[in-house]
Amino acid sequence: MTYSEKVLEQIQAGQMPAAQQSFTEALAKDSDDMIFSLAEELYGMGFLHQARQAYLHLLAKYPNEDELRVNLAEIAVSEGHNDEALSYLAQVQPDSDAYLQSLLVAADLYQTENEYEVTEEKLKEAYRIAPDEPAVQFALGEFYFMTSRFDEAIQYYFELIRNGYTEFAKVNIAGRLGICYAQSGQFKQALGYLKQVSPEYRTSDIRFQTGLTELQLGEIATAIKTFDELIQDDSQYASVYPELAKAYVKENKYQQALKTLQEGLAVDQYNARLYAQAAEVTSHLGNNKLMDEYLKKAHELDPDNLTINLDYSNFLLHTHDDEGNIKLLEPLIEEDEVDPQIYWNLARSYQRLEKFDLAGKYYREAAVTYSENPTFLKELVNFYRESGDTEQMVEELKHYLKLVPTDDEMQELLDEYEEY
C-alpha cells in the first residue's frame, strides 16, 4: 500500500494524526502521479489545506504545468482567497491546455464577487473555444439559471440533453428545463419536463414547482394532490402552504384553505403575507374577529408593507372602525410618496366622522389620481352633497355623467339641482 492510499484509509477510519503523518510520507516517497491523484481525492473530500500542499509540491517540480495552477486557483476560490486565485489564473495563457478550465474557474470567482458581466464574458469565451464541451454548456446553463435568465438557460440545458446527459454534476437537467420553462410562462412544456424527473431527483423544490405548474394550467385537483403529498413528506417546506390554499380557494373550499394556512403559520409564524392571506380567506367565511386578528398580526410583522396596510384599512372601513383606520393611515401620509388609495380611504373615514374639512382635503389629494374613476367621482358627489357644497357637487356630477351617461339616478339628481 502506498502512503497516499494509507492517507485515504486513515481518514476514512477517523485516524487523523496518523493520516497527517502518512500525508507527509506520501509527499516525500510516493510517485508524482500518485500525489496528484491524492490531491484530487483530498479536494473532493474537503481537505483543502492538504490538497493545496500537494499541488504546491508538484508545482515546484513542474513549474510549466498550468493544470496545477488552475487547481490551486480553484482551492483559493473555495477558501475565499480571490486575489491569490487571480494570481494563479493570470499565469495561464490562451495557448495552454489548461486555459479552458481556467476560464471556468475565473467565471466562478467573478460570480462570487457578483461581477456577473465578467462572469458571462469568461463563460462565453469558454463556449467559443469548446462549444461541445458539456462542462461549459452546464456552466452557462447554471449561470443563466441562477441569474433568472431562464430563456437563455434553456439553450444550454438542451445541448446537454442532445449530448446524452440527463444529469450533470448531480443536477437533473429535465428538472432544470422544467423550472426554466415554468419561469418563462411556458407551462405545458414545463410540466412535460418536470414529470420526466426521476424519483431520486424529485426534491421538494421540484415537486413544489410541479404543483405550481399544474395550478397555472388549471389542473386544480392534481395540484392539490401534488401539494398534499409534498406536505406529507416535508411538512417544513413553508412555501407550499400558501399555494395549496390558493388551489382550495379556486375550488371555493375556503374552510380547507384556512386550515392549510393555519398549518403553514405553525411552520412559518413570522410570515406577514401568510397572515394577510389567511385574513383574505377568512373574509369569505364571515369571521370578522378572526380576520381582524390576522390583519393586525400581519401589520405588526410588516408595518411598512403597503399592500397589508391597505388590506387592513379596507377591513377597518368595512367594519366602520374609522378611528382605527385614521390611526393606521395618518402616519403613512408623511412619507415621500403616498399611494393615492390612502388619501381616498382617509377621506371616507373623515367624512363618516363628519370632519368635512379633513375629508375634503384628502378627497382633493385623491382626485389627482382618481379624477376619471366613476366610483370615486360618485363618492365625491355624495361628499359635496353631504357637506353642503352644492356648487362643487354639481360640477363633479357633470363630470361623472360624461363618463357614465346611463346613470339615471345621478342624472335625476343633476336635473333636480339645476332646476333649483
Q: What report would you give on this structure?
A:
It comes from Limosilactobacillus vaginalis. This protein is mainly alpha-helical. Helices cover 75% and strands 1% of the residues. It is built from 25 helices and two strands. It has helices at 3-12, 16-29, 32-45, 48-61, 66-78, 82-90, 99-112, 116-129, 134-146, 150-162, 173-183, 187-194, 204-216, 220-233, 240-250, 254-267, 272-283, 288-301, 306-318, 322-329, 340-352, 356-370, 374-387, 390-403, 408-419; strands spanning 167-168, 171-172. The longest helix has 15 residues, at 356-370.
Name a few traits of the molecule.
25 helices; single chain; 420 residues; mainly alpha; elongated; 2 strands
Order of helices and strands: HHHHHHHHHHEEHHHHHHHHHHHHHHH
How many individual β-strands? 2
Give the strand order, joined by hyphens, for the main sheet. 1-2
Strand content: under 5%
Structural class: mainly alpha
Measured on Cα atoms, how large is the radius of gyration? 33 Å
Fraction of residues in helices?
Answer: over 70%
How many helices in DSSP terms? 25
Shape: elongated
Instruction: List segments where confidence is low: pLDDT < 50 over at least 5 consecutive residues.
Output: none
Kindly report how far apart the N and C termini lie: 112 Å
Give the averaged pLDDT, no decimals.
95
Characterize the largest beta sheet: strand count, sense, and whether it forms a barrel. Answer: 2 strands, antiparallel
